[in-house]
Design goal:
about 110 residues; mainly alpha; 434 Repressor (Amino-terminal Domain); 2 domains; about 70% helix; elongated
Length: about 110
Amino acid sequence: MTSEINKQIGKRIQYLRKQKGLSQEKLAEALNIATTSLSYIETGRGFMTLNTLENMSKILEVEPYEIFQHISINTNEEMYNYLLQKLDNIKNNTQKLKLLYDLFKVVL
């Protein structure tokens, strides 16, 4: 089972890896783990050992605690889908729909 915190940590690791310009393959190789293991970590379906955490922090040039710092990283598609879901939830709520409609008119 994938927990929300594992997903957030995985996104953070993926973000830090990309900031360093590393592919999953290169980071996995440097960590001496399988690429699939790193993929599982980045998607929140797995977690790393303390040894892997220590090595990862050295490779990514961050303190270990920085890997656990919460940063909400959303892609355009994730944000768009979230908005669509919320709009679908309020389509029968005239008050909320009107409020968002007026906001969109101002912003867009």
